[in-house]
Amino acid sequence: MPLIRSNVHTHTAFCDGKDAMEDMVLAALAAGFDTLGFSFHSYTPFDTSYCLRDHAAYMREYGRLKAKYSGDITLLNGVELDLYGERPAECDFVIGSVHYIKEGDAYFPVDCSAGDFKKLIEEAFAGDAYAAAERYFAEEAELARTVRPDIYGHFDLITRFNAGAAFFDEGGARYKRAALSAAEALPPGAVVEVNLGRLFRGEGGMYPSAWLLRELNALGCRFMLASDAHERAALGFMFGETCAELKKLGVRSLVRYRGGSLEEVGL
Ligand SMILES: [Zn+2]
Ligand SMILES: [Zn+2]
Question: pTM for the full model?
Answer without folding.
Answer: 0.97
